Amino acid sequence: MQIKDIIKKVKQIEIRTRKKTEASLMGQYHSAFKGQGMTFSEVRPYQFGDEIRRIDWNKTARFREPFVKVMEEERELTMMILVDISASMDYGTKTQLKREYVAEIVASLGFSAAGNNDKVGMILYADKVYKMIPPQKGRKHILSMISMVLTADYVPAVSQIDRAMEYLMGIFKRKSLVFILSDFEDPYDKKIMQVAAKKHQMLAMRIYDEKDNEIPDVGYMLMSDSETGEQLWVNTSSARWRYTFAELQKKKVRSLEQEFTGSSASFLNISTQDDYAKLLYQYFQKR
Residue 111's closest CA among 283, 277, 263, 285? Predict the structure, then answer.
């Protein structure tokens, strides 16, 4: 992809996602994720309906009329987006590749956070952490992250989310919003995920192409694992084989959902044909 094509693609994603974000996601995002606590803002005269526990008794005694302390939410949060750049994410059979779909989700999450004055950062990982983009604010920063997702070298290696999680916990001590974007084709250490989910507010999103779950009848086919290079001839004409494959995929998704929800995290199973904005909106509402 040439530079001019990348710039054009990033612009297109910005236009599409900002419309969706400003129309629905931004307000729900603000409501879903609260700040780190309350901080003192000012003191003002008491008004009917103010809570008695907010009265500033020192100032009330000094001026011989009631004054109350005004508190405001300490709003600023940090969002970290973990993006799987293993080779299986550079794949798609319909309108777009998984990486392009992920770039749009990154844009929507980023603009939602930026619209609420929160910082956003990103970790690109596969068998190890390849790049960490420190949390920052602003439109240019979000556009830069979109470009990185689109242009990253997708690695033919087994994805190890454990290493990304260990890296994240080593850097971010305060509670953060963590979004994981992966197809979760590879196993991971459940204990590390549980520890991370207790420390941070976490949503895992399995991004899949329809052909990840069901294989069509095309006769004998040489299947190749894009991450390990392992190859295997299979007879896709066998209805039993196709059924077994589909059932194994369903079982894997159910297992993933149980593991994440059991770890105090959330889980979404999203097809590249789904309206991700609608699903994120519903998730924010549930929060």
Answer: 277
In whole angstroms, give the CA distance from residue 191 to residue 214: 30
Alpha-carbon separation of residue 199 from 58, 93, 112, 178, 219 (angstroms): 38, 37, 22, 10, 48
pLDDT at 182 over 80: yes
Provide the token pair at 287: 């929060």
Q: Are 82 and 179 in contact (CB under 8 A)?
A: yes
Phi, psi of 71 (to 5 degrees): -110, 150
Q: In terms of DSSP bridges, do strands 78-84 and 119-125 run parallel, antiparallel, or are they unpaired?
A: parallel
Amino acid at 261: T
Half-sphere exposure of 261 (CA within 13 A, CB side): 9
- Residues 129/167, Cβ–Cβ less than 8 Å: yes
Secondary structure (DSSP) of 74-89: ----EEEEEEE-BGGG
**Any idea what the Cα angle at residue 101 is, between residues 261 and 181, rounded to 5°?**
30
Distance between CA atoms of residues 206 and 258, nearest Å: 13
CA dist list (Å): 133 to 21, 62, 85, 121, 264:
22, 51, 14, 5, 26
What is the DSSP secondary-structure string of 191-221?
HHHHHHHHHSEEEEEEEE-HHHH-----SEE
State percent of the chain over pLDDT 70. 92
pLDDT band at 128 (very low <50, low <70, confident <90, very high): very high
